[in-house]
Design goal:
By secondary structure, the chain is mainly α. The protein has eight helices and no strands.
Amino acid sequence: MLSTSDAHRPQAAAQDRFEALFDLLYARLYALVYRLTGDSHASEDVLQEAFVKLANAAVLTRPDEEVAAWLRRVVLNLGANHLRGERRLKQRLERAGRLEPTNAWPEADGPAGVVERREQAAAVRRVLAELPERQRDCLVLRHSGHSYAEIAAALDLAPGSVGVVLARAERSFRERYLERSPDELS
């Protein structure tokens, strides 16, 4: 007969595994989703949702690399869902005529360079949002410091295909970014 403490060991081990994975992966996943959303609160919300999904997922028993790949994919999907939801909300508000332009970064908060960098970052995110999902995700993962092998695992690609997808993504991004007028980029 199992004692009460024996019955709790598997649950405690799963909790310890979850906490270890959280500590190991949180910072890189946060950087990844922040590059996608550009919003710290949204990034934290996306990560919270991803880790809630992990807590109940069978993948938790897999090796760290597989869990990391699974979480990157979940984070990218949730981040894309967040961006779509934000875009739809903005469109609904614009259609209703209730959207008042807001300046998310007041110019008085810092030098002109800070404002310009934030405008460029916003323009980059707008162009990224227009790319096909696989290209966007590949670019974000690579520019977040992930290896080709990690990208291949997260996007379910053959490792030899990552370079091709990345080259196409960079070319497509560059063309779309350069074809915009300066007014569209700010």
